[in-house]
Hints:
- This protein is 33% helix and 15% strand.
- The protein has helices at 10-14, 18-25, 41-48, 87-93, 105-120, 123-131, 155-166, 194-200, 220-225, 243-251, 290-308, and strands at 3-7, 28-32, 53-56, 74-77, 96-98, 147-151, 170-174, 190-191, 203-206, 231-234, 257-260, 279-281.
- The protein has two domains: 3-103 and 289-323, NAD(P)-binding Rossmann-like Domain (Rossmann fold), CATH 3.40.50.720; 105-281, Rossmann fold, CATH 3.40.50.720.
- The structure holds (2R)-2,3-dihydroxypropanoic acid.
- (2R)-2,3-dihydroxypropanoic acid binds at residues 57-58, 79-81, 104, 287.
Amino acid sequence: xNGKILITARSFRKTPGRHLDILREAGYELIxxxxxxxxxxxxxxPLLADVDAAILGLDEVTAESVAGASRxxxxxxxxxxxxxxxxxxxxxxxxxxxxxxxxxxxxxxxLTMGLILALARHIPYADREVRQGNWGRKTGxxxxxxxxxxIGLGRIGRDVARRAYAFGMAICYYxxxxxxxxxxxxFTARACSLEDxxxxxxxxxxxxxxxxETRNLIDAAALxxxxxxxxxxxxxxxxxxxxxxxxxxxxxxxxxGAAFDAFAQEPPGDSxxxxxxxxxxxxxxxxxxxxxxxxxxxxxxxxxxxVLRGERPDGVVNPAVFSRD
Length: 325
Ligand code: DGY
């Protein structure tokens, strides 16, 4: 055996495929998470202490988690978000952190369109009605001609834009780091300020990372700027939205509806949002397609193996790790 690799994310562990085969073929023993949920910083520490690499879902990794991880060379995220990992602490310890850019953008974009349609046409309500023997029908709105405001126009935001454009939506976006024009093929979108986007959109969808700058970006003031007929969609990260303020906006009729695939606390427990008819919930399943599981899994495994071989894969988040003394 060459060493050990910790694997945590449930779909990565449970789905047979090349992503698992190449790790074993490279001579690594696979150590599985004991839980089917993200591990806390304390839970993951003893597991990281005994491995050379870790392929992780949304587990929390702090400086304390890696204090005893003397062999650990790489944390390969099975996904694109790194808000659950203390990147500066990993760099200081010489641990390379990688992600899988683009691997899940189609899956997340498709779920986003599904949630937009579910809100626009009240699909969960309709399903509940028919199952209960009723024939209740709520009048919806059409996407064609409606304005979609995208906060964040990275790979996922652009994949949403292409799909929404095909539905006939007008698209505006806010992104402090806008993509180059050549990355915007397949759709037309106009840049706007965050204030104008919030005030002018019928649907607002979040596609940005969670950081100290973006935490609670959608707070009570931002929600108050939105049209009362508007819908908010969050397939990015829970901490981007002040959920208490959202509850107040939705329950008072100040906002028409919202659909979330990501929550500040996951699972969201007894969040009051779950009691509202104009709120749709999904269990952080944006990447959960057969294709993305394999694509993202293979990329995560290749990233880990590349670092273990002494190479520098494309998805490195902390390149400074290679230039430390
Ligand atoms: C991501 O890519 O970070 C998704 O949330 C799945 O982990």
